[in-house]
């Protein structure tokens, strides 16, 4: 019989800074390679319109990876982009975001697709992340999920060439032509 070792935030904080992306998923270490250039271009393309929008309206805090989102002592994730609305501002600390943000955004990479669509979706739901965006560059779609009592439900999609607003930013129109490299 093998016993599983449950890692904690303290164990996580002691890991080397070697360019890999480490996360803790309920005490289990997850390691993925650094994202590629397409992933980073999409991250910048989303951040450019969102950052001034959030700041100018005083809506809260927008942050990008790498940044620890400490959901619990045994669950630490690094969403590509996250938003903490003003009502939750107390969870932003010097060491990261300590609790569930309002929005977590994951840009799919070949090495993270299953993790982002299954494991992290479950973790975000468990820790009360209201909105979850999955950005799939291969099919040029942003899927928007809203947390409900029994888990996430698709609330909106950005696809095709038609600009549209995505929750929770109801009056910020995103143009697909400016997102995809």
Major beta-sheet overview? 6 strands, mixed
Report the portion of residues in β strands: 35-45%
What is the total domain count? 1
Please report the total strand number as a whole number. 14
Shape summary: globular
Our count of helices gives 4
Q: Which consecutive residue ranges, at least 5 long each, have pLDDT under 50? A: none
The average pLDDT value, as a whole number, equals 95
Q: What is the name of the CATH superfamily?
A: tt1808, chain A
What structural keywords apply?
single chain, 181 residues, alpha+beta, tt1808, chain A, 6-stranded mixed sheet, two-stranded antiparallel ribbon, 4 helices, 37% strand
Protein model, in words:
- The chain is an alpha+beta fold.
- The protein has one domain (35-179): tt1808, chain A (Alpha-Beta Complex), CATH 3.90.1570.10.
- Helix content is 24%, strand content 37%.
- It contains 4 helices and 14 strands.
- The protein has helices at residues 9-13, 37-56, 113-126, 176-179; strands at residues 21-25, 28-32, 60-64, 69-72, 75-77, 81-85, 92-93, 96-97, 103-107, 131-136, 141-148, 151-158, 164-166, 169-174.
- Strands 3-6-9-10-11-12 form a 6-stranded mixed β-sheet, with helices on both faces. The chain has a two-stranded antiparallel sheet with strand order 1-2.
- A hairpin with a 2-residue loop joins strand 11 and strand 12.
- The protein is globular, with a radius of gyration of 16 Å.
- The model has no long low-confidence stretch (mean pLDDT 95).
